[in-house]
Design a protein that fits this description.
Blueprint lengths: L6 E9 L5 H9 L17 E7 L2 E7 L9 H16 L2 E7 L6 H13 L3 E6 L6 H14 L4 E4 L8 H11 L17 H17 L8 E10 L4 E10 L2 H8 L4 H18 L2 E10 L7 H6 L3
Parallel strand pairs: 1-3, 1-4, 4-5, 5-6, 8-9
Antiparallel strand pairs: 2-3, 7-8
Helix pairs in contact: 6-8
Length: about 300
């Protein structure tokens, strides 16, 4: 009786903005690793999630969305995405099933063809599209990158994700696990706190929030005897008007953001959380290479 070899490797999740890359990452890992909002360009950094199965370890790399980049921050995001595409031993190209297959998607697939890596196309959001609409899109994708495996999925609802997992595993090289089996991300708790606060800003303020908002955790102090974590953070914006929007009348908006972030952080960290937030204006930070470097970009 033959035993299938264990497989392991790096899997880059790539695609345009708002196609569901981070939702897919969270679904594959089985835990929330990346923040998810309806706003484009939510993911700014390389985010790593790990899926451990008995027969394979998938080290999944979520990437910023590919888009036309004008400002230094945006150029950094696109450069990060392209570096991560080159890192992957397998690439999952996420394409929206409820949108037109356009020039940007064609350009991405042409770029992936040059990398000569195994590619699985996750045709996402099938829950928002009809079969009649999907079939011509599948044909277009096959014509654009014949070597790719095409798997229609709904990352939000988990539909057909098991099939995508099977396809990815078959593409991975034979290898023992590359990361400890009890880990699901390489992000520190401090980094997770920054991302959760930023997510709640985006979700609470919806269309009002300016893109140029960042979060920095200044202090992350654990008090094990009290089962408590004290987090002190700064929300950074580019204009005074943005500061006023985030604080809100009587500080109500900031309080709502803080409550939502604290509740989720307590669930993730398994401890009580005291969350302090201040809003600081840093003019032009998204266009200043020195300030971007200071903020970890």
């Amino acid at each position: 009786m033959s035993i299938n070899p264990h497989r392991a490797g790096f899997v880059t999740i790539a695609g345009q903005t708002n196609v569901g890359k981070s939702t897919l990452l969270n679904c594959l890992v089985g835990q929330k690793v990346a923040i998810v909002t309806p706003r484009p360009q939510t993911t700014r950094r390389r985010i790593l999630g790990i899926r451990n199965d008995p027969d394979a370890q998938m080290i999944l790399i979520d990437t910023p969305g590919l888009h036309e980049a004008q400002r230094p921050l945006n150029r950094h995001m696109v450069d990060t995405a392209r570096r991560c595409m080159a890192e992957g031993e397998v690439i999952v190209a996420v394409i929206s099933g409820n949108a037109k297959f356009g020039a940007a998607d064609r350009a991405m697939l042409a770029e992936l063809a040059l990398l000569a890596r195994p590619v699985a196309i996750a045709l996402n959001k099938i829950d928002l599209s009809s079969r009649a609409r999907m079939m011509p899109l599948v044909q277009e994708l096959h014509a654009a990158l014949p070597s790719a495996e095409i798997v229609p999925v709904s990352a939000l609802k988990g539909e057909n994700v098991d099939e995508l997992v099977r396809v990815i595993k078959a593409m991975l090289p034979e290898s023992p696990a590359l990361m400890p089996g009890d880990e699901y991300t390489d992000q520190t708790e401090r980094m997770i706190a920054e991302e959760i606060v930023r997510e709640k800003i985006f979700l609470t303020m919806r269309q009002e929030i300016p893109f140029s908002t960042a979060v920095q955790v200044e202090q992350f102090v654990e008090e094990p005897d009290r089962n408590l974590v004290k987090i002190s953070s700064q929300i950074i914006v580019e204009r005074e008007s943005h500061k006023g929007m985030i604080i809100g009348a009587g500080g109500q908006q900031l309080k709502e953001i803080g409550t939502a972030a604290r509740i989720e952080l307590e669930e993730i960290l398994g401890r009580k959380v005291f969350l302090e937030m201040r809003v600081r204006v840093e003019r032009g930070w998204t266009s200043d290479p020195r300030k971007l470097k200071e903020m970890g970009f």
